[in-house]
Amino acid sequence: MKFSCARDKYIFTTKIYLDDEEEDYVELREPSLQEMQSLGGDSKQNIKTLEVLFPKCLIRHSFVDDDGESTDSKAVYDMLKESASLFTEIIDTWFKSIPFNSRLKKGSK
Fold first, then answer.
1. CA-to-CA distance for 47 and 52, rounded, in angstroms?
2. In the chain, what are the domain boundaries?
3. Angle separating helix axes 73-80 and 43-57, nearest 10 degrees
4. What φ, ψ does residue 102 adopt, rounded to 5°?
5. What is the pLDDT along the chain (109 residues), one digit of tens a residue?
6. In the list 10, 55, 85, 95, which could disulfide-bond 73, CB 3.0-4.6 Å?
7. pTM to 2 decimals?
């Protein structure tokens, strides 16, 4: 495999639709090992960590500004965090979707 293609194949992403029409969405990549290590048992610290982590992991989204230009990830994060219920659901869906225990081919030696 060409190394330039490996990231797209092996870094897991999940697309989360924000409405039933599947028009509005965010797509997040899985956190890196270093990013995951910054999360822990302290929920207040995890919220602070997610403030930095979420915009870095947000790789695509459906939001544009009033001129039709793509909105940057930090602006999308700032808008989404205004709703604690929506943001919490997004985080929950994101982390539950990451296949932590099932990535390698079954029967690998």
1. 9
2. 18-97
3. 140
4. -135, 35
5. 889 888 888 899 999 999 988 899 999 999 999 998 888 888 888 888 888 899 999 999 999 999 999 999 999 999 999 999 999 999 999 989 988 777 666 655 5
6. 55
7. 0.84
